[in-house]
Amino acid sequence: MPRHHSPDYHNDEANRDMTKDIIWSSGLKTTKPRVAIVKALFSQKQPISIVELHKIIKKDLAEISNTSIYRTLEALVKSGNVSRVNTGKAHASYEMIDGRKHHHHVICKKCGDMEDVDTCPIRSSVELYENQTKKFKIIQDHSLEFFGICKKCF
């Protein structure tokens, strides 16, 4: 999976190039809406829904639809530049894979607050799962989210 470092958008030229590289490596043409999507994803510390992303982007680009955002995100996910996260809600959330190591999330079932967890209990078991399955040759990826009640809501 491609790994990029979170840009500091004060270094404009280098960050424009990196943003374009991410879009290009996802098989997409560079457009203002796609640049805005990547910039908005980089600005987030936690996964974000399409609706939340749309609110951020439409401040600068009023003419962008949720469908356009969804299609761009799906291409970014397929290319390994973005990760889709199940937050336990009706919709997925997304986060940029930005040089951070593989991680999971703990999500509060009451308020939705989220925390990254760097320990992966599944990684060492992937080979075991590959050997147990009859229909799959290789397991390429996995996701695991933990749900509970945060200290603030408890």
Radius of gyration: 17 Å
CATH superfamily of the largest domain: Winged helix-like DNA-binding domain superfamily/Winged helix DNA-binding domain
Strand order of the largest sheet: 1-3-2
- Tell me, rounded to a whole number, the average pLDDT: 84
| Terminal CA distance | 37 Å
Can you name the CATH architecture of the largest domain? Answer: Orthogonal Bundle
Helix content: 25-40%
Q: Approximately what portion of the residues adopt beta-strand conformation? A: 5-15%
Shape: globular
Uncertain ranges: 1-10
Largest sheet: 3 strands, antiparallel
Number of strands: 6
The topology string of helices and strands comes to HHEHHEEEEHE
Q: Structural class of the secondary structure composition?
A: alpha+beta
Written account of the structure:
With 154 residues, the chain is α+β, with helices and mostly antiparallel strands. It is built from 5 helices and 6 strands. It has 2 domains: 1-100, Arc Repressor Mutant, subunit A (Orthogonal Bundle); 101-154, Ferric-uptake regulator, C-terminal dimerisarion domain (Dna Ligase, domain 1), CATH 3.30.1490. It has helices spanning 12-25, 32-42, 50-57, 66-78, 126-132; strands at residues 48-49, 82-85, 93-96, 104-108, 114-117, 145-148. The strands form 2 sheets. It has a 3-stranded antiparallel sheet with strand order 1-3-2. It has a 3-stranded mixed sheet with strand order 5-4-6, with no helix packed on it. Residues 1-10 have low confidence and may be disordered.
